[in-house]
UniProtKB/TrEMBL annotation, chain A:
PANTHER family: 37S RIBOSOMAL PROTEIN MRP10, MITOCHONDRIAL, SMALL RIBOSOMAL SUBUNIT PROTEIN MS37. One of its GO terms (molecular function) is structural constituent of ribosome. This is 37S ribosomal protein mrp10, mitochondrial. It comes from Pisolithus tinctorius Marx 270. InterPro entries: Ribosomal_mS37_fun. GO terms for cellular component: mitochondrial small ribosomal subunit. GO terms for biological process: mitochondrial translation.
Automatic annotation (TrEMBL), chain B:
This is Small ribosomal subunit protein uS7 domain-containing protein. GO terms for biological process: translation. Pfam families: Ribosomal_S7. Residues 110-240 form the Small ribosomal subunit protein uS7 domain. It comes from Pisolithus tinctorius Marx 270. Gene3D superfamilies: Ribosomal protein S7 domain (1.10.455.10). Coiled coil: none annotated.
């Protein structure tokens, strides 16, 4: 039987979810397509930018995701592996 | 009181505007948050003036310095007690279509944007000094443009505010720039910071003169704040593939 003294892994990095991601991507894409980087032209990117601003006004505040506790559980198991 | 200073200075600016713009076809719907003065000809207008005098009493404390009947527009304004059958406290009329008060915008005692600007100019806890600077900035804008200063400030700060922010994230050995959307408060904060930084390079002996010149310059399209905003937005555009990156 293999004895592993201390089992630990490097857990996956958790990233905070991005609010209004699709609107942000749409606005950045509009800038790239038209070149209206300041979003001043109503025919180009102004409405897209306004959509993003409206989404940010109403988007729920994203809390920090729970950090993975895999190493805690593994440390519990490693005692049984003796 | 700082509130009183701001309110009084705004009222003085509006009084100045009222004297200058006699028969201007102002559309009150466009300019929000300012006092719009029109030709006081009808009885409805006189009622509006009387009601606004009561509201100003409540806001400022007294209207002895501002005599609404001094505005040279023809018939004198009757006192609030003389208006037929009206109660002393201002009541809302039943229909909004005929409501003269709906056509007249009276700003609140504290404007949140002006409070924000005051906080940004605050140093060593001297809020009264910062409030005075903001007050004088509004005055300088009005003297340069002969227009209500508050919408100019609002428009200028919104024009100078960036819409995104770039966060640096390390993925392995590489450090990537990830664009994030900003909330309204974050945008205003960034805009105010940019405007204040850009105003340092303007000519003028005091902060309020430089800030006034900068705010007007932003609306005219000549500002370092806008150049910086464009640079940031272009960088975000180039890094648009990194949005929501997970590895």
């Amino acid at each position: 039987m293999v004895h592993i003294a201390n089992v630990k892994v490097r857990p996956r990095k958790v990233t905070t979810p991005v609010p209004c991601r699709s609107e942000l991507v749409a606005m950045l894409g509009c800038w790239a397509a038209t070149g209206d980087v300041l979003s001043t032209d109503p025919n180009r990117c102004k409405m897209v930018a306004e959509t993003l601003f409206q989404c940010m006004r109403t988007a729920p505040v994203a809390g920090k995701p729970h950090k993975p506790a895999i190493n805690y559980h593994l440390s519990k198991l490693s005692k049984k592996a003796k | 009181m700082n509130v009183r200073n701001l309110a009084v200075s705004a009222l003085q600016a509006a009084k100045f505007t009222a004297r200058r713009t006699r028969a201007s076809p102002f559309s009150p719907g466009i300019v929000a948050g300012t006092i719009v003065a029109r030709h006081a000809s009808s009885s409805a207008d006189r009622e509006t003036l009387a009601k606004s005098a009561e509201l100003l009493d409540a806001l400022v404390g007294s209207t002895t310095g501002l005599n609404l009947s001094d505005i040279p527009y023809g018939e004198p304004v009757p006192q609030a007690s003389q208006t037929s059958g009206q109660s002393t406290s201002p009541t809302l009329p039943s229909s909004t279509v005929d409501d003269p008060l709906a056509q007249m915008f009276i700003p609140p005692a504290n404007d949140p944007l002006l409070d924000y600007l005051t906080s940004a100019l605050l140093k060593n806890g001297r809020r009264a000094k910062a409030a005075r600077l903001v007050s004088r900035t509004l005055l300088h804008i009005h003297t340069s443009t002969r227009a209500p200063p508050l919408p100019i400030v609002r428009e200028a700060i919104l024009t100078a505010s960036p819409a995104v922010k770039l966060g640096s994230h390390k993925y392995g050995t590489k450090s990537l720039q990830v664009p994030y959307a900003l909330t309204e408060k974050q945008r205003i904060h960034a805009g105010v910071k940019a405007v204040l930084a850009a105003s340092e390079s303007r000519p003028g002996k005091s902060v309020d003169i430089r800030l006034a010149r900068e705010l007007i310059g932003v609306l005219q399209g000549e500002s370092k704040a806008i150049v910086e905003k464009e640079r940031l937005h272009k960088l975000a555009m180039v890094n648009r593939g990194n949005v929501g990156l997970r590895r």
